Amino acid sequence: MSDSDNENKPSVKSQLRVIDLIVLVLFLFTAAVGLYLFQRDLMQTIDSRDEEPAGIIVIRNNIVQRRHDDRVLWDRIFVDSPVYSGDLIRSADLSSAAINIEDTSIFLNENTLIRIQRSMDGRGPMQVELREGNLSVTSGQDSSLLLNLMGRMVQTGGGTVLNASVGDDGILLQVNEGTAHFIEEGKSREITEGSMISIDEKGVERSVPSAVVTRPAPNARYLKTEQENIPVNFSWRRINLSSGESISLHAASNPDFSRDYQKLDGLDSSARVFFGAGQWYWRLMYENAVLSSGRLTVADGSSLSLISPVPDSLIRYRDNLPLLRFQWAQRRDIAYYLVEICKTSDFVNVIRKQSASSSLVIQELGAGTWYWRVKPVFLMYEGETVWSQISSFNIEKTSDPQAPEIVIPEPVFARIPDPVRLRTGGRTYTVRSGDTLIKIAIELYGDYRFYVRIVEANNILNPDLIYPNQEFIIP
To answer: What's the pTM?
Structure first.
């Protein structure tokens, strides 16, 4: 190669400079586009605050997101989050959400995508387009909703309960209670309670063996207040099945029906199943075909255990009213806790508070004997929770600077149980199978009320969850 050819050939350094420049330009361009999209999305979010919400999220489990139709970013939504006309809302795997729109409840099951839209004139019912997945609708007595299923419209009436699904295999609509109008190509027909419409992926209506469950409602939610499991009554209407062909009902605590499995055979059109607290899945089967399926939730609405103030404790203060921390056992899936504090045990003229967590701090109680109780509050559940047992404590004003601020009754130790070991600086207890903190407190102190000492000494976050072979410090 000649010297002149080497002179005309770009050097390695100049080639690297060109590549670096191209990379820099691409980076700046990408950053500018991302900044523009973020700014546009932020401004639309700010502007939406001036818009009247179309509804509100009342229940959210796991991952649920919302996005306005002309936005790019998906936002996480939470309980009490507003939703607006034009919003897309989606739920992920093992996720769900309930939305309240104009006195109508819409429950999204997992892997479901919907779009909310007001009517063009703003006077008609709200429209919800089900793009994929499964949802249930419960209309209020004086409300109505327009449901869009792949271009086919379903208008609910007052008190209608229905379940709808859209997917690659077509459309399925079941009316569990009340009536709905199915509108296709300008023609309307009434769908009554216990009826259904099934349309395949080609748009052809099909007749297949199935069952429309009228009880329990889709995604039913029950409260259990006693130790025993609660009975749930099932009833259904047969579709394309003769009365002589028996149906079986399967129930389990997981979607693949492999855990806590129950099965009832030889059924006609009703059954009763007992459920404990938790989420349950059910399906009606004819031979090897699933006729209908769903899920229900049973929540623990029983009496809560109170942790502090310790019963019969004495709380002293000198100048300012004492800062009191009320604490009780946690409960899952609650909306909030209701706390009542009163000077009398009949709870007349009470101080009533709400708390989203399992504790409450107040500084407004003066000298005297005080009584208090707590109960969990659940939304959209059938049944009523119960109050905890009543606990009391005393507040005393003192001028003695040496007086302790809190006096807790001393326990009486009858014996040292086997799992308790003496160590330098104190004792420890090894948890055995079947133990609870209350049971341990009774065994160690002779009084269940002193389990709070174990909780505080070991920083136990949830007193309802302890495990065998855990080792606790015993104060």
So the answer is: 0.71
